[in-house]
């Protein structure tokens, strides 16, 4: 619920802590790093490159008319620009944001797209080639009044320009557009736009004769020989809070990678504005071989340096996430978070350790595949998720640090005191109260600490995060030593210090003693002040930092202190307490305050000096991996490959059962022909198992596919059941633990075609 206030709708609770240990974030650009409010800021129309919106009078009338029609018709009719909700605000963009930017360009040219749409409603559109990640363009065909056809097309400039053979000149007339003209235009217009962080869109058209009608299914021929109308540069401003959020991630040891469909120059410019890369950095690599296949080895070489993935498809995003997760380039497995909003982003969101879906622009499929939904589609909300994740982990560690200290001291005091003095200084009801302090109250107090910016000042733990670090072990043992020393001092010499009767060796059913009450009260006071120490688990000295930002913690500490006063002064026999004098109370509080001073002493001791803590706080190392996971032939396979191998295993088991049935028939036949001469062997269709005999054998580990008694009954099979000397690594059956080998050492006899056994074998 608290994360929801920070625009993080958590669907899977375990994703919170996982996000706290993320080492990489693969983020979309549009809408996440940028505002997703597209605006045309530059245009190339009539052989002129305008650095700002051109004046309508400077554009040829014919070109302007074509431009308005091309944008109005060749856009989703659900996309529109609405008046602002508040006076003085920006117009509202509804629908596809890129198309909204183009429609806004029409309005900036003092034109209106609504009359065009009213003249040619959506149901009159003759043919529509919708936009997709492969086509990178959208085209719409309309029927002209004279029966001819006109197609309007728009899309990525470098793709659409390759299909243009003409371009409208300054007079609005088409002229030849040669490849060298295109190269010059790319160099002088498109690349400068892209370097300014603009997305370049080319708008074009083509006319078709009515007779014969073109083959609209032949898309390659239809989408060619176009006439370029204009090229526009659309700006999607970077969110103002994103650069600072990315700096926080980088300071926290998290690598941010931008995944976008823009071209390289646009992606580079946006990445520089966001702070993902810096000017002059080399970030372009190939991850495909000559055949176009993606190689994990190449991914391993480049992903540590990769910051921007341009002209990417949803498949490329999944490849990047899978490549980073599967990489063995670094010692620890990377924890990867990824953002997605489209239906095709589902596999990447599922593959990632934490998937973020966009709450505004995201599809239902993306939201279902995600772990956390960003309700504001903002990258800075991901940083807040990192803070909450680390805070959840720290809260668990704080509670463990406090509880283990209380447990160690309470168990040793209760057990040792009972053994030495025949009576525990901590009574049963008192232990229940201590239990309440160290379990319920402590968990509420320490687990409700709000996240702070300081959580982003340390590197992530990755997958092998230690639950109890060496610093925590030092704190636990240090405070336990302090508490045990004072408790045992009070137990054996406390009556002399306070000049009171000793509580040791008291007769059964004797009234509560001041001696043991002081011990109980001192023990609780030390836990209260140690609870303040437990707020810090990384060796920080200022344990009071931010304490008043957590009212629950302050309430529980003060409330526990007040209840302790009531228990000691008025608990009486039920709590085995005797009322204490003011000076005795002051001593108990003073010893409790000593916990804070002792905590500073512990903080000054370097953890590296404590040799016995060298192995503390470490999780599974490489040498502790089970042997079955170290087999060099074992490779990680995905779900589809597992299903394939499972099918192969079932196939081989089926063959094995047929073999077993044939052996049964042979045994039956041998008993039938006992004492008679066996018929001569003849080849028949059922002998495929015996000439040569195919046999299924198990490779290590041994997986029995048939009953062991079958091996005993068939000496020949038993004889040849040894594993092969060499294995083919490319054989999927061998990878699954099954070997298919041939045995030509013996031949089997077949029944004569006329015998009844022959028909039985054939049916089997």
UniProtKB/TrEMBL annotation:
Domain Cation-transporting P-type ATPase C-terminal: residue ranges: 424-602
Q: What domain of life does the native source organism fall in?
A: Eukaryota
According to its UniProt entry, the protein's GO biological process terms are:
regulation of cytosolic calcium ion concentration
Here the segments flagged for biased composition (Low complexity) are 718-733, 741-755
Could you tell me which residues belong to the region Disordered?
Answer: 714-764
Source species: Phaethon lepturus
Q: Where are the transmembrane segments?
A: 400-420, 476-494, 551-572, 584-605
What is the protein named? P-type Cu(+) transporter
State the membrane topology.
Multi-pass membrane protein
Task: Please give the GO cellular component terms listed in this UniProt entry.
Answer: postsynaptic density membrane
Q: Which GO terms describe its molecular function?
A: ATP binding; ATP hydrolysis activity; metal ion binding; P-type calcium transporter activity; P-type monovalent copper transporter activity; PDZ domain binding
UniProt cross-references to InterPro entries, sorted A to Z: ATP_Ca_trans_C, ATPase_P-typ_cation-transptr_C, ATPase_P-typ_cyto_dom_N, ATPase_P-typ_P_site, ATPase_P-typ_TM_dom_sf, HAD-like_sf, HAD_sf, P-type_ATPase_IIB
Name of a matching Pfam family? Hydrolase_3
Principal place of residence? membrane
Q: Keyword set for this entry? A: ATP-binding, Cell membrane, Copper, Copper transport, Ion transport, Magnesium, Membrane, Metal-binding, Nucleotide-binding, Phosphoprotein, Translocase, Transmembrane, Transmembrane helix, Transport
Q: Where in or outside the cell is it found?
A: Cell membrane
Give the EC number(s) under which this enzyme is classified. Answer: 7.2.2.8
- What are the residue boundaries of the Plasma membrane calcium transporting P-type ATPase C-terminal domain, all occurrences included? 647-693
Whether Glycosyltransferase counts among this entry's keywords is: no
């Amino acid at each position: 619920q608290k994360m929801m206030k920070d625009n993080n709708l958590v669907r899977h609770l375990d994703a919170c802590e996982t996000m706290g240990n993320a080492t990489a974030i693969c983020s979309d650009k549009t809408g996440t790093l940028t505002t997703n409010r597209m605006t045309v800021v530059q245009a190339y129309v009539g052989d002129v490159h305008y650095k700002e919106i051109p004046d309508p009078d400077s554009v040829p009338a014919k070109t302007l008319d074509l431009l308005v029609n091309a944008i109005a018709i060749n856009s989703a009719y659900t996309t529109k620009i609405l008046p602002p909700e508040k006076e003085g605000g920006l117009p509202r963009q509804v629908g596809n944001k890129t198309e909204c930017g183009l429609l806004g360009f029409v309005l900036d040219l003092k034109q209106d797209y609504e009359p065009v749409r009213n003249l040619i409603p959506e149901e009159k559109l003759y043919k529509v080639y919708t936009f997709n990640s492969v086509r990178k363009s959208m085209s719409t065909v309309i029927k002209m009044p004279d029966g001819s056809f006109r197609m309007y097309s728009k899309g990525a400039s470098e793709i659409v320009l390759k299909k243009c053979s003409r371009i409208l000149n300054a007079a609005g007339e088409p002229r030849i557009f040669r490849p060298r003209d295109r190269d010059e235009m790319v160099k002088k217009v498109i690349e400068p736009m892209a370097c300014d962080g603009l997305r370049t869109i080319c708008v074009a058209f083509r006319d078709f004769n009515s007779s014969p009608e073109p083959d609209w299914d032949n898309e390659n021929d239809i989408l060619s020989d176009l006439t370029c109308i204009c090229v526009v540069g659309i700006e999607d401003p970077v969110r103002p809070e994103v650069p600072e959020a990315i700096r926080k991630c980088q300071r926290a040891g998290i690598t941010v990678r931008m995944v976008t469909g823009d071209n390289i120059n646009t992606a580079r410019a946006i990445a520089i504005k966001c702070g993902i890369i810096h000017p002059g950095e080399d970030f372009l690599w190939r991850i495909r071989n000559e055949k176009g296949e993606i190689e994990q080895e190449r991914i391993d070489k480049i992903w540590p340096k990769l910051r921007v993935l341009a002209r990417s498809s949803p498949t490329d995003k999944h490849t990047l996430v899978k490549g980073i997760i599967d990489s063995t380039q670094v010692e620890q497995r990377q924890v990867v978070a990824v953002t997605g909003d489209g239906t095709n982003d589902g596999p990447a969101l599922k593959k990632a350790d934490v998937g973020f879906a966009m709450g505004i622009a995201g599809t239902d499929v993306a939201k279902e595949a995600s772990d956390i939904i960003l309700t504001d589609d903002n990258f800075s909300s991901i940083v807040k998720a990192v803070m909450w994740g680390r805070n959840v982990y720290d809260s668990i560690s704080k509670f463990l640090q406090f509880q283990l200290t209380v447990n160690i001291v309470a168990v040793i005091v209760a057990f040792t005191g009972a053994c030495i003095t025949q009576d525990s200084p901590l009574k049963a009801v008192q232990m229940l109260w201590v239990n309440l302090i160290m379990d319920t109250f402590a968990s509420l107090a320490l687990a409700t600490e709000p996240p702070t910016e300081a959580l982003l000042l340390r590197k992530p733990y990755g997958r092998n995060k230690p639950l109890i670090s060496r610093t925590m072990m030092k704190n636990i043992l240090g405070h336990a030593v302090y508490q045990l020393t004072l408790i045992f001092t009070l137990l054996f010499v406390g009556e002399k210090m306070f000049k009171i009767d000793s509580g040791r060796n008291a007769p059964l059913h004797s009234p509560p003693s001041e001696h043991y009450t002081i011990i109980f009260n001192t023990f609780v006071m030390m836990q209260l002040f140690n609870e303040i120490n437990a707020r810090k688990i990384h060796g920080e000295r200022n344990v009071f930092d931010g304490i008043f930002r957590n009212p629950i913690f302050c309430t529980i500490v003060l409330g526990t202190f007040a209840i302790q006063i009531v228990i000691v002064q008025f608990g009486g026999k039920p709590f085995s307490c005797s009322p204490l004098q003011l000076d005795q109370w002051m001593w108990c509080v003073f010893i409790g305050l000593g916990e804070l001073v002792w905590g500073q002493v512990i903080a000054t001791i370097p953890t590296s000096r404590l040799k016995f803590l060298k192995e503390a706080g470490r999780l599974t190392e490489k040498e502790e991996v089970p042997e079955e996971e170290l087999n060099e032939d074992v490779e990680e396979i995905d779900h589809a490959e597992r299903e394939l191998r499972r099918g192969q295993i079932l196939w081989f088991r089926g063959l094995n059962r047929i073999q077993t049935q044939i052996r049964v028939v042979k045994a039956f036949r041998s008993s039938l022909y006992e004492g008679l001469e066996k018929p001569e062997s003849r080849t028949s269709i059922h002998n495929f198992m015996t000439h040569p005999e195919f046999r299924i054998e198990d490779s290590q580990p041994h997986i029995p596919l048939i009953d062991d008694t079958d091996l005993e009954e068939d000496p020949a099979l038993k004889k040849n059941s040894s594993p092969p000397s060499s294995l083919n690594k490319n054989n999927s059956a061998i990878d699954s633990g099954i070997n298919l080998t041939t045995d030509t050492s013996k031949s089997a006899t077949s029944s004569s075609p006329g015998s009844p056994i022959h028909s039985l074998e054939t049916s089997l």
